[in-house]
Write a structure and sequence with these properties.
ABC transporter transmembrane region fold, 60% helix, 4-stranded antiparallel sheet
Length: 657
């Protein structure tokens, strides 16, 4: 074999260093995860303490039962334990002792069940609240498109070809976070984590205590017989290790498949109209059923593995019990044990087997719950990015909307994290002044809606700035409460929640009075159709506003934007679904922006995103975007008269006006 070259040696060293860094990183992640789980458990310290103490008391009661039952049998049979005859007088009667154990064990079981269930429900509710809070407050819009979910699933080839530890079987499953996936984590994974912290941990403690007490009592009764029954432990341990590795992979695969199915169902239900118009209902049903069949197939393998292990455990435990009874019968015949002691020993042997399988089962549940715990933890934990601080915080702290004269965009550059090599906007600059209407035009995909999303705070630019003039406050350092009065947008889709008309309009400004809401609805020409709805303001609009027409939804969205009395109103193709009354409402909004009508004394700034040439007639300034860049800015009149302008090239119909 030829000697390795320097390049090969360097590559090998680099690969080794990379693997070592990867292992260290995984260890750090697990350490953080375990620390977080301990913190969550500490929140329910007293409930868990009482529950675990009751669990221990219950376990002790279970281990004492065979002992006193054996004594009771010996007392009724007239035999005496020769090993303890000298101390017989110090014991309470077996009947009374047995009664005390039964009552104490029942009380302990009551406390155990009550306190642990209370702790589990509290942890689950708190975790769901934290997950929802993190999603609502800490995750930006891009997160839903590019988030990565960690999973401990591994490919079959990796399992078969790798002989290293389980760490090498950990892969990263990358996918966008859909509402269906988030719902699965909120329901299933959070429940698994809460159950693991409480019931699984308590069961592990109980089984461990039962194993220790059973071992002690078996050694006390007959050490040689105990060593004989102990021969089954290595077999059970080896089977447990094999099952753990196999189940870990199957559980991860099943959870991944369940999340994919949930995401699939959520997307098809959301896009139900498209599915029905394409006559694909039957196909989608087959696809979903195929996913469920895959889940069922994996679940069956998981159940088979669990069943095989439990069957093996029972058979091994029963065989050990048979051996104990057989050999113990000889000891009773030889007067080395009493029949009561043999009964106690056999019962302890059975309890030891149950305790051993309980320990293995609890450990398996703990390992499986770590998959869900990792997902929950990744949702809750804050982003690693260091929050940028304003150089002049006083500029943003005391700013009033009435003092803002314009919003200035300077050299904005933006690219989606899902497409890092593509820049949607490149050095975009424009100014949106109070009382001025700016029309933003361009082909589909030119970046118009992205500009609107940046102004609305839904995305963050990679470079450039959005500044409020004249004081120079930076938009990204403003608090969210101020932003809702600074910018409001009416998107083309006009999203509504499944709540009443009144609550939908009030949603952008919870502090709005009924009079302010009425004025906003009047300005958006909503009074006519709302008065005809059953219940008027209290009419529930349905999921996504499905009980209303597209024009009615658009007008309510306009009212919702106006009720915040914003400095900047963005209309993103807002006229596309409007009827005549809606067009009138839009004209009213234009008048309000110029200061001729509405609560803004000097008017508001209006950004009009449109592809309709006629809509440009109301604009003071027209900005033309092409492939994410501003290629032309000017008045509508000047650009229209210039037959070679980019605007005329974009909208040839302007030449006919």
């Amino acid at each position: 074999m030829p000697p390795k070259s320097d390049e090969d040696s360097h590559a090998t060293a680099s690969s080794g260093a990379s693997n070592e860094d990867s292992v260290n990183n995984k260890r750090q992640q697990r350490a953080l995860l375990n620390k977080w789980l301990r913190q969550e458990a500490s929140e329910e310290f007293w409930s868990l303490l009482v529950g675990c103490a009751a669990m221990m008391a219950s376990s002790v009661s279970n281990t004492l039962l065979p002992r006193f039952m054996g004594k009771l049998l010996d007392q009724k049979g007239g035999t005496t334990d020769t090993c303890s005859s000298n101390a017989q007088a110090s014991y309470v009667s077996p009947t009374l002792s047995l009664l005390m154990v039964v009552v104490g064990g029942g009380t302990a079981s009551f406390l155990r069940t009550t306190m642990l269930h209370r702790a589990e429900e509290s942890i689950a509710a708190r975790l769901r609240g934290k997950v929802f809070e993190a999603i609502m407050t800490e995750k930006d819009m891009e997160w839903f498109q590019t988030e990565r979910i960690r999973s401990d699933s591994a490919s079959t080839s990796t399992e078969m070809t790798s002989s290293s530890s389980d760490e090498e079987a950990i892969n990263t499953h990358r996918t966008g976070m859909t509402p269906g996936m988030i719902a699965t984590i909120l329901n299933d994974d959070v429940s698994d984590v809460a159950h693991s912290i409480t019931a699984t941990t308590a069961n592990l403690v109980r089984s461990s205590i039962s194993a220790v007490f059973s071992t002690y009592n078996m050694l006390r009764l007959n050490p040689s017989l105990f060593l004989t029954s102990l021969l089954t432990v290595p077999l059970i341990g080896a089977a447990a290790m094999t099952m753990r590795k196999f189940l870990k992979r199957l559980t991860a695969q099943r959870k991944d498949q369940a999340m994919k199915a949930a995401s699939f169902a959520e997307e098809r239900i959301t896009q139900m109209a498209m599915v029905k118009m394409s006559n694909r209902e039957a196909d989608e049903v087959k696809n979903y059923q195929a996913m469920q069949e895959e889940c069922k197939s994996i679940g069956r393998k998981e159940s088979l593995a669990n069943g095989a292990f439990m069957g093996f455990t029972f058979s091994a435990t029963s065989s050990a019990l048979f051996t104990v009874v057989h050999l113990g019968g000889r000891a009773v015949a030889a007067k080395r044990m009493t029949s009561g002691q043999l009964t106690s020993f056999a019962t302890y042997s059975f309890l030891l087997g149950l305790a051993s399988s309980g320990i293995v089962k609890a450990l398996s549940e703990a390992f499986r719950s770590m998959i869900g715990a990792q997902r929950v933890f990744e949702l809750i934990q804050s982003n690693d990015e260091i929050e940028e601080q304003s150089e002049h915080p006083e500029l943003e702290k005391n700013l009033q909307v009435a003092a803002v004269e314009s919003v200035s965009l300077r050299n904005l550059t933006f690219g989606y994290r899902s497409r890092p090599d593509t820049k949607v906007l490149k050095n975009v600059s424009m100014e949106l002044k109070r009382g001025t209407i700016v029309a933003l035009v361009g082909k589909n995909g030119s970046g118009k809606t992205t500009v609107a999303n940046l102004l609305a705070g839904l995305y963050k630019p990679q470079s450039g700035s959005i500044t409020l003039l004249p004081n120079g406050a930076n938009f990204k350092f403003l608090n969210k409460s101020f932003k809702r009065h600074l910018v409001q947008m009416v998107p083309q889709g006009a999203p509504l929640l499944n709540i009443s008309v009144f609550e939908n309009v009030k949603y952008s400004n919870p502090d709005a009075t009924e009079d302010e809401i009425q004025k906003a609805m009047t300005a958006a020409n909503c009074d006519g159709f709302v008065s005809k709805l059953p219940g008027g303001w209290d009419f529930v609009v349905g999921i996504h506003g499905c009980k209303l027409s597209a024009g009615q939804r658009q007008r309510l969205a306009l009212a919702r934007a106006l009720v915040s009395d914003p400095f900047l109103l963005i209309l993103d193709e807002a006229s596309s679904a409007l009827d005549d009354e809606g067009e009138t409402a839009l004209s009213e909004a234009v008048l309000a922006s110029r200061g001729k009508k509405g609560s803004q004394k000097n008017g508001r700034s209006l950004l009009l995103i449109t592809h309709k040439p006629k809509s440009l007639e109301v604009a003071d300034i027209v900005v033309v975007l092409r492939e994410g860049q501003v290629v032309e800015t000017g008045s509508f009149k000047d650009l229209k008269e210039n037959r070679t302008s980019a605007l005329c090239s974009l909208m040839p119909d302007l030449l006919k006006l």
